[in-house]
Amino acid sequence: MEESKKNAENEFLPANENLYDLSEIKLISNNDDGLLNKILTILVSMLSSEKENIRVLAKKDSWKEVAEIVHKLKTSLTHIRVDSLKQIILDMEEYEKHSNEKLRLLAEEFCTALDNILVYLKVDLAASAKV
Q1: Is 102 inside any structural domain?
Q2: 81: domain range?
């Protein structure tokens, strides 16, 4: 399997292409490319914004606020089947059970995963806009 793939701008994409699954989103949009494009646009915007909020709040050890954001994102991530983050989400929602150091590591892992997901969502968004 290819370790990386180049997109249209010749940037290398993260190795794992199976970060998520858009089949449920495509079903919800009834395969309407315009609606799919709108959903992906909203998803990219929300994930990008909230990822940055998590990074800022994690630096302040504001774990309750981080947990609220992660909880809010859980539904969207479930709809696109991001199964790899289930345990991290659970751990971050139950922030009282973990040390600040552990939570900082979880937050960074979560945000790094979102970075990778966003790379591919943007590729999918560009592809849906061309149709």
Answers
A1: yes
A2: 20-130
Of the candidates 105, 37, 48, 103, the one whose C-alpha atom is nearest the C-alpha of residue 73 is 48
- In this structure, are residues 57 and 112 in contact, taking their beta carbons and an 8 Å threshold? no
Residue 4 confidence (pLDDT) above 50: no
Please state the pTM of the whole predicted model. Answer: 0.84
Cα–Cα distances (Å) from 129 to 38, 39, 42, 62, in that order, read 9, 12, 14, 38
Determine the 3-state secondary structure of 10 from DSSP: coil
Residues 6+ apart with CB under 8 A from 79: 24, 25, 28
Number of domains in the chain: 1
Quick: pLDDT tens for 5-44: 444 444 555 555 578 999 999 998 997 889 999 999 999 9
Measured CA distances, 53 to 34, 57, 58, 60, 77 (Å): 29, 6, 8, 11, 17
Q: In this structure, what DSSP letter does residue 4 have?
A: -
